[in-house]
Amino acid sequence: MSSTSPPTVALDGRFARELAELAVPWQADEPTDPRLLVLNEPLAAALRLDPAWLQTPAGVRLLVGVGVPDDATPVAQAYAGHQFGQFVPRLGDGRALLLGELVDIDGHLRDLHLKGSGRTPFARGGDGLAAVGPMLREYVVSEAMHALGIPTTRSLAVVATGRAVRRETLLPGAVLARVASSHLRVGSFQYARGTGDVDLLRRLADHAIVRHHPAAEAEQPYVALLDAVIAVQASLVARWMLVGFVHGVMNTDNMTISGETIDYGPCAFLDAFDPAAVYSSIDHGGRYAYGNQPLAAQWNLARLAEAVLPLLHHDPERAVVLATTALDRFPGRYEAAWSLGMRAKLGLPEDLDPAIVVPLAEELLALLRDDHVDFTSFFRVLAGAARGDAEPTRRLFPDHRAIDAWLTRWLALSPAADAMDRVNPVYIPRNHLIEEALAAATDGDLTPLHRLVEAVTAPYDERPGFERHAAAAPPDFGAYRTFCGT
What we know:
By secondary structure, the protein is of the alpha+beta class. Among the domains are: 14-180, no CATH class; 186-337, no CATH class. The protein is built from 19 helices and eleven strands. The protein has helices at residues 14-18, 41-46, 51-54, 57-63, 132-147, 186-194, 198-212, 221-243, 293-312, 316-327, 330-345, 354-370, 375-386, 391-394, 400-411, 417-423, 431-442, 447-456, 467-470, and strands spanning 23-25, 35-39, 75-77, 81-83, 86-88, 96-103, 109-115, 154-166, 170-180, 245-246, 268-269. Strand 8 (154-166) and strand 9 (170-180) form a beta hairpin. The protein is globular. The chain starts with 13 loop residues before the first helix and ends in a 16-residue tail after the last helix.
C-alpha cells in the first residue's frame, strides 16, 4: 500500500446487519485537536492498514472514528452484565464504538473498536470520554499479554483528542483504537435473553458459532457452543494465573465468547505473590482477587448457561441438566491447563504425573506467599538453580530451610533450565514502571512508555540496558490500586 494516497479501508458491518437489535448506529465525537501518541505498526500491517497513512491527518481521523468510510456503520453495542454480582440489564458501549470488521492478512475477521470516543445512548450519565493514562495502560498491558501468548484484544493506537477530561482533576483526553476477534460477551447473551426474543438469542448464538467456534456446528450446536466457551475460558484464566495477572473487573460484560482477555481497566500483575491481591479501587470485598479468578470465571459461565437455556433443549429440566454437565467440566479443564503450565514453569518433564507436579507447585506457592517473594523474579531466578547455582534463589527467602528442602525435591526431577527460560518472562508491565510511564506520558514525555513497550513485547529475552524493567518493585512502592478511568 502506498502512503501517498488514501487507501481503501473496508469496514464491514456484519454485526450491525445480523444483530441489529444489539447495535445502535452512532457517531464518534469530533476531537478538538487529534494527535497520534502511539501506533502499533506491526498490528496495522497485519490488518492490511498502511502504517504510514495512519499517521497522516486522514489516518488519525479514522483512528478516532470521525474519518470512517461512507459505507461504514459505526455502532454502540448493547449488552447486559453482572457487575460485582449485581445484574444490570442494560449496560452497552457507553463510551465506545464498533467501527466495523476488517479482514486481516490471515483471512480472519477482526473488530476495529474505539474507547473514549464520546457519549452513546448507553452512557448512563457518564461523559463518554477517556484520559490518556488509562488508554495507554491498556495499550501497554494488552500488548504485553499478546507477547506472553495469552489470548487478548490488542491495541492499534492511542490518539490524544486535545480535549480535557474531568476525573479527580482535569486530564488530557484520548481515544484507544483496539482490535479483537469480536466483542461478543457473556453480557451480550444476557441482554438477548432479557429481551424475551428467543429468535434473537438463537441468531446471536449462530453468529458466535460461525465467528468463533465453528466446531460447535454439531448435532447439538448450542450445547457445543456453551462447552467451547467454557473450555477457552478455563484455558485463559489458567494462563492469567500462571503469569500472575489480575484482571480486576471480571464482570460478565468483561468475559468474551472468543476466550480473549478484554478491558484492561483496574488490572495489574502481581509483585509479591499473594492470592488475596486486589488491585481494583472498587473491589472492596476482594471478589476478583487473584486467587478468586477461577471461581469468578466459573460463576460467569453459569450466567452464560442460564442465558442460553432456551436453546439447549425444549424441555427446561433437560436443558438444566445439559448446562450443569457442561459447567461441571470447568474445574477439571482449569486444573489440567494450570498444572500443564506450572509443569512448564518448573521445567519438569512433559510425562510427569500431575499428582507429583500439583503438590510440589502448591507447596512452592505457599512458600512464596509466606515470604512475600516476587512472583515473576522467582521463576526466572529459579532456572539458575537448575543450572547449578541455587544461591540467588535462596537469597529471596529469609529462612532457607523450607526452600532448601523444596529445591532438593525439585532438583531430583531433573528440571530443564532452558525450557524454563522460554516460558518464564524476564519482563512484565511492572506496576511501578507503568505508573512512571503514564505520569510522564500525561506530561507529554512518551520516552518511558516506549521503553516499557520495548521491554514487555519481548518478555523472554534478557537484554542489557533493561535491568530496571526486570527488577522487583522498590520497597517504598507501597500498596497499589488501579482505576477504571470512567
